[in-house]
Design brief:
Shape: globular
Order of helices and strands: HEEEEEEEE
CATH architecture of the largest domain: Sandwich
Largest sheet: 5 strands, antiparallel
CATH class of the largest domain: Mainly Beta
Structural class: alpha+beta
Mean pLDDT: 86
Helix content: 10-25%
Low-confidence stretches: 1-31
CATH topology of the largest domain: Immunoglobulin-like
Length: 156
C-alpha cells in the first residue's frame, strides 16, 4: 500500500490550488482582453446599397484589401446612417475604412479620373487628398476589456 507523508500531501494540495488559481486567472484574462468596437457611420446620401467596413491592425492591405483586413462587416443603411458592432477585438491599435457600396458590387466605384463616385470614410475622419490618408492618421486604440466607439462621416 502506498501512503503519502504529511509534507508530500501539503505539496500536492498546494500544486492543485496553484493550478486552479492559474486556470481561473487565465480565464479572467482571456475574457478581459477582448473588446467590442461600435462604429457609428453617418452622412450617407441615401439608403441604397450597404456600408462595407474593414478593420486593419497593420498597414498591410490598407485601405481596401479585405483579404488582409482583420475583420470585415457589411451593414444596411437606415435614415442615411448605420451602426456596426465589431466584437471580440483584442486590445491594440486599429484603423477602420469603409465605403457606401450603393450598387452592392463590393468595391468603391470611381470615375474615369479615379475620383470616387461612392461614399468612403476612415477612422478619425482625417483630411483626404488625392489618395487615402496615411495609416497612422487613422489609428485609434481599443482598450483591454472595454467598449470602444468611433464615429465616421461618409464623404462623397
Amino acid at each position: 500500500m502506498f501512503t503519502y507523508d504529511r509534507s508530500r500531501r501539503a505539496t500536492l494540495a498546494g500544486l492543485v490550488t496553484l493550478a486552479g488559481a492559474l486556470l481561473d486567472a487565465s480565464r479572467a484574462a482571456a475574457s478581459d482582453e477582448v473588446s467590442t468596437l461600435t462604429v457609428q457611420v453617418t452622412g450617407a446620401r441615401n439608403d441604397r446599397g450597404q456600408v462595407a467596413l474593414l478593420v486593419f491592425r497593420d498597414p498591410a492591405g490598407y485601405p481596401d484589401d479585405p483579404r488582409r483586413a482583420l475583420r470585415s462587416h457589411v451593414a444596411p443603411l437606415k435614415d442615411r446612417s448605420t451602426t456596426v458592432l465589431v466584437r471580440d477585438l483584442p486590445p491594440g491599435r486599429y484603423v477602420v475604412t469603409l465605403i457606401h457600396d450603393e450598387n452592392r458590387n463590393g468595391k468603391l466605384d470611381t470615375n474615369i479620373l479615379g475620383i470616387p463616385t461612392e461614399g468612403y470614410g476612415f477612422s478619425n475622419n482625417p483630411k483626404v487628398g488625392l489618395s487615402a490618408p496615411a495609416f497612422g492618421a487613422c489609428t485609434f486604440v481599443v482598450p483591454s476589456g472595454a467598449a470602444a466607439r468611433i464615429d465616421i462621416g461618409l464623404r462623397y
